[in-house]
## 1
Amino acid sequence: MIQDPRKPCIVGNWKMHGSRDMITKLVVEIVAGSASITDIEIVLCPPLVYLSFVENELREKKCKDHIQVGAQNVYCEQEGAYTGEISPLMLSDIGCHYVILGHSERRQFFAEDDNLIARKFIAAYHAALTPILCVGETALEREQGKTFEVVSRQMQAVFELAPLEALQKAIVAYEPVWAIGTGLTATPDQAEEVHSYLRSWIAKKYAKLANRMRILYGGSVKAENAKGLFAKANIDGALVGGASLSPKDFLNICENAVVRV
Ligand code: PGA
């Protein structure tokens, strides 16, 4: 039997929440509570201004072997006159290893299109970051039966530009827009349907990669629904928004991650 090499990954996306005080407490509790949770990758994505601070805390507490930091966004150039932007090399430089790309809030509120996201993906790869590529349909697109069409288009833009080595490093997150921050979670079956579609879509291009690529689910993941989602064969972890701000809930989600051997 071929060993399943997909290590579960739980990403906490803190979005634009927090303060030094609140984040200090959050990190202390997550570090303490995750000591016994082994064999999974935990990634904390604080707002950018706190990224270095969180990275420092994790390093001082010597837990960077199982908890890493990630950014919520990055620019597609490494350097230059781009006032207000942050480059992938800068993230790498401060000990950040992951970056969320193409989150629906970036697509919706900041007009990020498929091409820009693909360019960010390549730039992140060149700076040795692991891109966490978000794809997902809106409620209307789902109603119109366009879910597969939308996620394929979002994936295709990246697969067209990215070399295989870049894709091998990446993580995909299926995040139905209608489930983000709404309390409406996709049922395990609804999520699995899209995850398995995505894996077969990848397999048509790169069979081996399809087996290895981690596909996380995101959209109102909570302690109560994590177990059911993680029981599905193609769900390799979660991208958690709201619940990642509560150490108890976040740790509970981490505890439910299924290590497949
Ligand atoms: P949510 O957010 O868990 O609050 O729905 C998920 C996300 O936006 O990544």
Note: The chain has one domain: 9-255.
## 2
Amino acid sequence: MKIVNLEVIPVTVPMEAPLRWSMGIETGTTRGIIRITTDDGVIGIGETYGGDGVEHAIETAKPFVLGLDPLETGVLQHRLGVFRVSYETSVPAIVRAGIEMACLDAAGKALGRPVYSLLGGKIRDRVETAAYLFYRYRSKNGRIGGEDSAKAMVDRAHELVEKHGFRSLKLKGGVLTPDEEFETIRLLREHFPHSPLRWDPNAAWSVETGIRIGRRLLRDGIDLQYLEDPTWNLEGMSQVRKAVEIPLATNMCLISYDQLAPGIRMRSVDVVLSDVHYWGGFRENQRLIAVCDAFQIGVGMHSDRELGISTAAMIHLAASSPSLVYAIDSHYHDQVDDIISQPFVYQQGAFTVPDGPGLGVEVDWDKVAKYHGLFKQEGQVNEFYDRNRPGWVPALPIF
Ligand code: MG
């Protein structure tokens, strides 16, 4: 079986209401739907970030991918990753990940096996997901969103927990002042005393603010599962961690192999959030998790507005990774639609692992055409801006 074609289709799917974060707002998600075809006529699907850069990267990757057996993902990663030090020929990790995803989907379909089976088998049948809580602007029609206070966020948390059955809660911070967000965390803790609780200010705080807020959490007995990226870079995280006995997690300062050794030496983080895209795909995440296991670093999973194909990939990876014990992140409940024919449904705060061949999801190509139209109309979603603050440019730390 050999790959004879590789293509990508960009799509944009809106959010129910704009999600706020430290560096702007997320009004939707732009993704690249990757499709490979084999000489046997098998179609494999993958997903990556969207936009013009990705289309260029796919064209760059094409000569190295055509002719490969979809099962030979080690060769694929070597071919595409070996040039990672060169600006001219490198194929970014996020694109390598999407191509590898499509390869294993095709291989799984050809073999009649789910992707988790190709990753070593599933350890669990369901993958728990955290309730991702964002401060939101109101939707255009004014009916959805508008959370800008502790009380409003607690109401939102109750709504999501009742609707989807989430056990873990994650507050996206870095939006209001640290003291206002502290009140949100305090109230969430009060309303959900037994829920694992996380707070992610996306490096909006200085080291001093991180230490001040951390000490206040400890003083007030507010138990966090972890504090995620309170401040910027391995050094800043290390300084906060030395000063406060709260586990720190990251998807910002330890996101590549180059950063693993210094991050471990400096004891900058307790939990590394894996990512099916950032780290380059299934194989690379399995290597990351092996290193984390060796150094007793916890493993969770980051989300960046994935649609159903990448969500399936996250579920297969999490299901086949024994030490990935933290509820994974997902934006799924904030997106208005999906491009797979049977969108995922949360059951008691978890996704059920698909058992069908490949990724176990089918693409709805009419939906792809619809949201490709939206991409052409509106272009790539820019998350590094804030419509309510014209001319504002994100810079960290904010507080
Ligand atoms: Mg984060």
Note: Residues 23 and 394 are 5 Å apart (CA to CA).
## 3
Amino acid sequence: MSNIFLIGFMGAGKTTLAKKIASKLSYKWLDSDQEIEKQEGMKVSEIFEVRGEAYFRSLEKKFIEDLNPNENLIVATGGGLPCFHALMDTLNELGITIYLERTPKELFQRVKQATNSRPLIAHKTDEELLEYIESTMEKRREIYLQSKIIVDRFSQTPEKLIELIQNELR
Ligand code: S3P
């Protein structure tokens, strides 16, 4: 038994899959953005606006450091979380990391309707959004690829992920 971390860019489907896997495995699940919002009493977009990104990244670090390493949790991590404060290493120490890989074009299609709640992509034109996703992915990809399990889009179903997790736990 171990903590499980779902990793990937905005729009990869981390939260939806975390919920589904957790109910099938009878694990608890958490979403780092939601936990930070509860704790701060502010939406992520407001935290960025009022306190700035560096403050938000420090909250992400604290959230991960405060996790109980022995609790069996599925955690949906914010898209940038593993890429700051060397948290990818921390996640790999704390449990099973699973990267939900998607191409920039797929991510673009998936996030373009829901940019307002995401401060890093709010108010971008379609062209700016695709460019932002491509350039940010270029920087983040090598970090995401340090995950223990890398899942392509065809395998991003709860059933397949559970099978991969069970193989890893064996
Ligand atoms: C971010 C992703 C968001 C949220 C914040 C910053 C990022 O989470 O943490 O807006 O840096 O990619 P989701 O990946 O859940 O959208």
Note: The first strand starts at residue 3 and ends at 7.
## 4
Amino acid sequence: MAVYVVDGGKRLSGEVKIQGSKNSALPILAATLLCKGECVLFNCPRLSDVDASLSILRYIGCKARREDSTLIVDTGSVERFEIPPELMHRMRSSIIFLGAMIARFGRARMSFPGGCELGPRPIDLHLSALREMGAEINEEHGELDCVVNDTLRGASLSLPIPSVGATENIMIAAATARGTTVISNAAREPEIVDLADFLNACGAKIHGAGESTVVIDGVRDLKPASHAIIPDRIVAATLMAAAAATGSNIHFTGIIPAHLESVIPVFRDAGCEIALSGEGMRLSAPYRLRSPKLIRTMPYPGFPTDAQAPVMSMAAVADGMTVFVENMFLSRYSHVSELCRLGADIRVEGKVAVVDGVKRLLSAKVRAHDLRGAAALVVAALCARGQSEISGIEYLERGYEDFELVLSSLGADVKKI
Ligand code: UD1
């Protein structure tokens, strides 16, 4: 297994273009199943989670090839309506294929994606919504066996939690269902809007994506289309944390500032200067950061849970105390014990983490246990004095494309070994 060896304490400088969004690419790849032809997706990041989606599409019988950052997916011919457990277990969000498969085939068989490194991640909302739309779903021995006897029907669905994955599964299933589907308390994340934009480019009729109520008028079928994936706001937030923690000055390109509206104020509170211009942003960090005081993770447009871990590494070297409240997942502090090995002063009590900023972190050997936790350890190692070694890099590679090369291009000393 690869490790990162990081010689910390270097200032970063230069320009970085933000990769395409993982959380947009995954549901859009699943949605290509509805198009029965060749879709072209630009700005698709090279990640193990994207590869996992491509493996599922290929197993089903689709063709997929990559030309640099462009993916060409041909879902014209398919052979199977099942996904084997080894592919389902490669990533939790493979559940997003459920809506797409029952919409395309009226059948789907797959194993339960189960829990993950963030604690239990139920899919009850996905299943109850698809049942309301006419899918019969049997759950036995960890398997989901779904059949639609007639056709999927539009339904009025109210989500108790604005679940991103459930909203996406419903939107995909509803795109070609008979009648109108209304999702109340829908997730409002930019990735939901990107999925709607892709589906609408294919001929779907989806209104209100990005708002709490999404209305989907089912159409007969969808046609293949081309689409550019939005930039990854979490990768941007991670690199902002890396720049801030190392007292650096970095120019970001290819971002959508509106997607960072809850993130930018945290960096300003910490004393960073942020200048926005079109799709660009310059972040200049002070010599010593101030603590951002309070960070509460919330559904969009609140502060993203995915940015909690990398921003905690920044808070670990800020002057003063920062309180984090993790409202989205039960077990999202696995990076804390490793940050403490690097010299951070952090205490966790339930969903609250209290970070007492220290002047500097010290190098150590640490291990990542999840994707964003891995990113947090890299940020911390970049500002720690001395050489750190980070294992568990396979988690990082689920969401960050060539991260060691990106950081090296900014002047960091990071080697993947
Ligand atoms: C997506 C993102 C993930 C992000 C999360 C929250 C992708 C591929 N992943 O995950 O990076 O951290 O949104 O912004 O886009 N829940 C239920 N029942 C369900 C579904 C969800 O109880 O059927 C709960 C979850 O346990 C969690 C909360 O709802 O506590 C939010 O989950 P959800 O928005 O569904 O996250 P994901 O779509 O899994």
Note: The pocket of uridine-diphosphate-N-acetylglucosamine is lined by residues 23, 26, 93, 121-126, 161, 163-166, 187, 191, 305-306, 328-329 (CB under 6 Å).
